[in-house]
Amino acid sequence: xxxxxGKIASAAVxxxxxxxxxxxxxxxxxxxxxxxILVGNSGASETYVASKVKNCEETGFDSSLxxxxxxxxxxxxxxxxxxxxxxxxxDGILVQLPLPKHIDDEKIIEAIDPNKDVDxxxxxxxxxxxxxxxxxxxxxxxxVLLMLEYFNIPTKxxxxxxxxxxxxxxxxxxxxxxxxxxxxxxxxxxxHRHTPKAALDLIVKQADILxxxxxxxxxxxxxxxxxxxxxxxxxxxxxxxxxxKKGFRIKGDVTYEEVSKVASAITPVPGGVGLMTIAGxxxxxxxxxxxxxxxx
Length: 296
Ligand code: NAP
Known about the structure:
CATH class of the largest domain: Alpha Beta
Bound molecules: NADP nicotinamide-adenine-dinucleotide phosphate
Strand content: 15-25%
Oligomer: single chain
C-alpha cells in the first residue's frame, strides 16, 4: 500500500519553484508576490493562512498578509481588493474563506482580477477550466492533480468517484478528472448530499479512484472500498479531543487505518491534500507572475 505523502510530493513542486525564484533574484528581478486577506481570527483560517505565508517565504515568493477584524464592511474589503488589483507588484490575491455572514463571498471573489485569482475561484476561471482553456485551476483540485502526477497514478479509463460537489473542491475535481489531460480522461461519478446512502455505497464500491470532500470525519468506511482503489481524502475537520495538546485532532473524511488495508494508495490527513493545496496555490502564483492570459 502506497502512502500518497503530501510532504514528499509538495516538496518536489516547491523545490522547482524555489529554483525559479532564485534564478529571478539572481537576474535582479522581483519575485512573485502573493497577497492574502484574512478576516477575523478563526483558529483554522489563521492556521491555513499562516501556513500559506510560511510556504511563500520558504519557496522564495514575496507575500503580504492583510488582516481585517470580523466587523469589516463589504465595501472596505472590496476597496482593498481594488487596490491590490491595480498594484502591479502584486501577482496573486487570495481571500481566505469562509467570510463573516454579512459579507457576500461571491461578490468578493468576483471582485478579484481574474489574472490574479490564484485560488481559481473566479467564475471566469471556472468557466475556462470547464472548457479546458488555460486558467488558474482551483488550488485544492490542482493539488490533487499534482499529487496524482507525482505518484504516477493512472487515471485514463478509470472510474473516478468524487463525493462532495462544492465549488472549490468536489465539482472542479469531477470536471478535471473527466477532462482531456494526463491526469484526466477518467469516467466520473459525482455524489452529494442527495445521493441516497445505498446508492452512494454501491457507487463508491466501483471507484478505482475515490476523492472524498464532504467534511464529515470518517464518513467513508472500508467495507465500501473496492480492493486496490486509490483514495484521495480531502476532508479536514477539527475533532475535539482533550487528550491532544491543542484540544483537537485533525480527521479526514475516510477511516484511514481500515481503508488503508484495502486500498492500493491513500492520502494521509494531515500531511496529504492540504500540503498539495499550497503547492497548487504557489504554482498558480508563479503562473500569475509570468503573464496575464486573460485581458478585459
Ligand atoms: P462544503 O462546501 O461543505 O461541501 C461539502 C460537500 O459534501 C457538499 O457538496 C455536500 O453536498 C456534500 N455532502 C454533505 N453531506 C453529504 C453526504 N451525507 N453524502 C454525500 N455528500 C455529502 O465543503 P468543502 O469546502 O468542499 O470541503 C470539504 C472538506 O474538505 C472539509 O472538511 C474541508 O475542511 C476540506 N477542505 C480541505 C482542503 C485541503 O486543502 N485539504 C481544502 C478545502 C476544503 P450538497 O452540495 O448537496 O450540500
